[in-house]
Amino acid sequence: MLEVGTYNALLTASQYYDPAHNNFNDSHKSFKRMMPTFAWEVLEVYSGPPVVAFRWRHWGEMKNDYVGYNSSSEKVKVEAHGGPIDIEGVTVAKVNDKLQVQSLDIWYDPMAMFRQISKEDQISGESSSSGCPFGQG
User: Fold this and answer.
1) What whole-number distance in Å separates Cα of residue 123 and Cα of residue 132?
2) CB count, 10 Å around CB of 3?
3) Least buried of 2, 44, 79, 87, by fewest C-beta within 10 Å?
4) Omega into 50 within 30° of 0, i.e. cis?
5) At the top level of CATH, which class does the domain 6-118 belong to?
6) pTM, whole model, 2 decimals?
């Protein structure tokens, strides 16, 4: 995650975004610009160390337009709607005796955020070719 960035590590290729076409800095700018405040909270903890399982929520308001590059290398823009973006998931973190993370397994729907960003599929691109609308599992 430290090398590619959190967005690139957790998002899959789609008609809205592709980690292969967005570097660490560009991905951070795209999402931070769109949602200046994107809070993250732990909702429930299921088990303690050394295997910590928990449910989380990541949310914010879409204050500015989303701009990124999709799986067809097209620049994608979705106009800001000012509404909430709210996603949830589950993580299992394995930690050592110093509580340092050794591994992470994360389950969530990576397209949930994009369905909320483009509520009425109001996507615009710079070229006419279309990308694959299905995210990878």
Assistant:
1) 13
2) 7
3) 2
4) yes
5) alpha beta
6) 0.76
